[in-house]
Specification:
This protein has about 240 residues and is mainly beta. It has four helices and twelve strands. The relative contact order is 0.26.
Length: about 240
């Protein structure tokens, strides 16, 4: 089996509380050859503390959604059994350095039954206790209480494309140094613009046990972690 790899999005988790994050990049607006493979085209990767449990993290991969200002809105979930999604987790060493070799890899696949119904399978999810699966478009549980979901959802990525275009215009003439406040309407309590509102994306979402992802070291501190995702397609 030959896999074709794709790049992804990176996020960093804070060391002690895993409560704040800094986004390194976003994988929107790929080259035509990449964005034409909707099921394998990663949009964004997310990692955040569970709003319902202090002992869990939530990981997510979105794919298939198209970047603004393109007009297409996804109407169906991309269920492709030939694509492998890998969610990589890299822990920093005691000095805060990363080696870009994941300590944990979560593997995600889709499959279809004889009626053509799509199902999700996850393997190696921290705290899940092994491989587990369930139907798309509904939340399902492991025996250990870890939840997972896959389905079509409103794209969570936020971006003001109109403001970005306006900002570029403020650099157009010599002597201009940009007007961030005016371009993004940051003054006067003006409503924010989201160019991705109402645009769907296919999403994979799963919980993870915090202690398994970032176990406490001496002194009670957790290591910094970073995550990224890749997709691989079986070569025909």
């Amino acid at each position: 089996m030959t896999l074709r790899r794709k790049s992804a999005v990176w996020l960093f988790a804070a060391a002690a509380t895993v409560a704040s994050f800094a986004v390194m990049s976003a994988d929107h607006a790929d080259a035509p050859g990449t964005s034409g493979d909707f099921a394998a085209d990663i949009a964004d990767v997310f990692l955040f503390p569970s709003p319902e449990s202090a002992t869990k993290l939530v990981g997510a991969i979105t794919f298939g959604g198209r970047p603004a200002p393109r007009s297409r809105i996804d109407g169906t979930f991309y269920c492709d059994p030939d694509v492998l999604y890998t969610y990589n987790i890299d822990r920093a060493d005691a000095f805060g350095n990363f080696d870009s070799i994941p300590e944990v890899q979560v593997f995600v696949r889709f499959g279809k039954n004889s009626q053509g119904q799509c199902g999700l399978q996850l393997e190696n999810v921290p705290g899940a206790g092994g491989r587990f699966s369930g139907p798309i478009e509904q939340v399902f549980f492991t025996n250990s209480g870890i939840r997972a979901f896959a389905g079509l959802r409103n794209d969570p990525f936020f971006f003001d494309f109109e403001g970005f275009t306006a900002l570029l215009g403020t650099f157009a003439k010599p002597g201009q140094n940009g007007d961030l406040v005016a371009a993004f309407r940051l003054a006067g309590n003006q409503p924010r613009r989201d160019s991705f509102v109402g645009r769907n994306a296919s999403a994979i979402v799963f919980e993870m046990d915090l202690e398994s992802v970032a176990p406490k070291a001496a002194g009670g501190l957790r290591p910094k972690i970073r995550v990224w995702a890749t997709t691989g397609r079986i070569a025909g």
